[in-house]
Amino acid sequence: MMVKESYRAQWDRSRAYLETGDLGLALQELRDGLTLAPDDVVLWEEVFNLSLLGGLTQNALAAAVRLRELAPENTDFIGLHAMAALLAGKLTEAVPLFEEVLRRDPGSVETRRQLARALDVAGQRGRVRTLLEEAVALAPTETGAPNDLAVHYLEHVPQEGPALAVRVLGPVLEAHPADPPTHFNLALALRLSDPARARYHVQKVLKGDDKDLRAQAQQLLTMIPA
């Protein structure tokens, strides 16, 4: 990361404010820096990152658009634009951007996940399963794509969905035996077919650090047949 001396003081103050949790002041220092170097991609990318951190999706989207203007062929910036558009609810903008990133980087697992998410939110579920199955084929033991696919199976594939979810999560659990979301989704998948195993996976979640997931697991426990 090449920080220019012309805005070094603003950059350093921004980092200091960020360390104390003053996100608004940190962003203001970056904007002050942009008055000195309005076309600096390092500054704009940091504005994007801090805006996302603060949940300022419109600010992040504006920063991503500016990065695209400064470097139109940069695939990473197209991805940032797509992500910001998705978070801002601009699905018709996000989907073709993710498609473009995938065209440029056909081996990307994360782009497939994000595109599947955008299509799912848009109600265009025809390709969601295909995209997620491709992502799992590329990374069968990572925690992200297999859990996304398991949830898709459980929510959108009647009858055989739970068995498909168990199958896709098996290699993940073997590689990450303590991963709470994997245990939670296995509990969901096994709730009716194997209540004892489902309760086992719930107990694993309850021993984890994710407070929200623990609350969901506690609720799921009441839905598992005795």
UniProtKB/TrEMBL annotation:
Domain of life, per lineage: Bacteria
InterPro entries: TPR-like_helical_dom_sf
A Pfam family that the UniProt record links to this protein: TPR_19
Gene3D superfamilies in the record: Tetratricopeptide repeat domain (1.25.40.10)
Protein name: Tetratricopeptide repeat protein
Organism: Corallococcus praedator
Native organism taxonomy: Bacteria, Pseudomonadati, Myxococcota, Myxococcia, Myxococcales
